[in-house]
Structure formats: structure tokens, C-alpha cells
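This is your field. Please look over both lines of this record.
***
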Amino acid sequence: MTADTGLALYGRTAARGSAQVLESYSTSFRLSSRLCAPAVRTDLAAIYALVRVADEIVDGCAAGAGLSSSQCREVLDGLEQEVEAALRSGYSANLVVHAFAATGRATGIGPELTRPFFASMRRDLAPLVFTDEDELDEYVHGSAEVVGLMCLAAFRRGMEPEPVRDERWDRGAVALGSAFQRVNFLRDLGEDAEGLGRRYFPGIDPHRFTDAERDRILDGIDAELAIADSVIGELPGSSRRAVAAAHLLYADLSARLRRTPARALVSQRIRVPAWRKATLLVRAVLRSEDAR
């Protein structure tokens, strides 16, 4: 069997499959990732596709197929086991898992990041109401911060370790992932509560949500965005523009959320218009050029 018809062909097919998942499910992440170098873009698609597949298990696709909650958990547990096995062996019969494992093995992503992710996904298999900030922080770490660290692993692929720099970049990736997740929680406040039985923000009743509560949450988000912003200019040119674009998009969303009455956030999802996204992409490119 030649390289062109064996594992290499299978790997390219798996990568294309993950890219198709990204193409089908995301607008913002897809647009931002297009600003990356091709190799980084491939890694990001592999990470996104696995995260999306897991997310769909807990957000209704599996239930829509008639699976019970316990069966959904079995599917999610099975996916995690497949991921860990593929990270060890370099192969999976599941194309999305195979692509993720190829990226993971090349960039150093391992169970220390995938296990917290799957743990948070399991929390979403049943209705949940967080009662304290520690619960929320633990969930956000698994659902978003580790995904930021996975993406960062792709950004610095092939780079020599520099402990001080790497700690600074890790802090920025964690802050950005957390900010993204918390913005999305605010955008989906009503739908999460009514459709999925989830209340992520402790002490927040979506039906009595106040402007003061909105601003308190957004103050924390903006502080995290500032931490992330402080390191974006240091990132490799192969990824800097994409991260800058994503940061600008979520900073814009944060500002729009702050301008929206809290009572309205329960019934409408705040979005960034397409023309504004295009403007932010241009700004990200120009900003990244200035940082060179």
C-alpha cells in the first residue's frame, strides 16, 4: 500500500472532514481561522470538530435520535475513550477523532486537557443550576479554557519552550476562552434556561435579570479580554491575526450586550452583523501588521 493510498490519504480525508464540520457549524470561528497559516488552520479545524461533536451529543442531537440521558452519557463516554486511545495509537476509525489525535500528538495535547473538557460536557447531560462561582469556574475551565489551551498548542507548534513566555501565553489563552464562554452564556441566557434547563450564572434568575447583574458579569468578561489582549501581539504571525479577530469580535459582542437592556437579553440573541464582522477582520489584519 503506497503512502498516497494508506494512512496519509486517510489522514487527509479526516482533516477535510473536520474542516467540513467547521464550515457547516461556525461562522465566526471559521472566518477567524481563515486568517491563520494553512497548517494552523488544519489543527484548529480538528480541535473545533471534536468539540462540536461532543457538544452536539449533550445539546440535543443524540436525544433527537431517541437516546435517553443515560445512553447519551454512554455515547459521550465512548467518544472520550476513543480520543484517549487515538492519542496513544495515532489512529481511529472515527474520522473526527483521527484528525484530532493527529493534531494532539503533533502539538502535545493530551488527557490533561481532554479530560476536563469531557467532564464539563457530562455536566450538560442533565439540567443544571450552578449555586456558587467555584462550580461555574470549574465548568468554564473544562468547557472553554482548556479549548483555548488546545488552540494555543497549535499556535506554538514546533516552537522551543520558553517557560516565562509560555506561562504568559497560557494565562492569555485561558482568559480568552473564559471570556468567550461567558459572553455566549449571556447571549443564550433565556434559551439555556427555558430550552435546556441550564442556569450557569449563580444567583441569576433570567426572568428577573437586572442591568446591574449584567454589568457585573460583563466587567469580569472585559477584564479577561484585557488579559488576553496583552499577549496577542506576541503570538506567531501564523496565528496572530486570527486571535486578534476573535478578540475584537467578542469585545464588540460585550459592548453590544452592555448596551442591551438586561430584560431584553432573555428573549433575543445579540449578534454582530456581517458588515461589522468584515470590518473587524480588516482591523485585526492591520493591528497584527502593526505588532510585527
Remarks:
- Residues 1-126 form one domain.
- The beta strands are 128-129, 198-199.
- The chain has two domains: 1-126, 127-292.
- The radius of gyration is 19 Å.
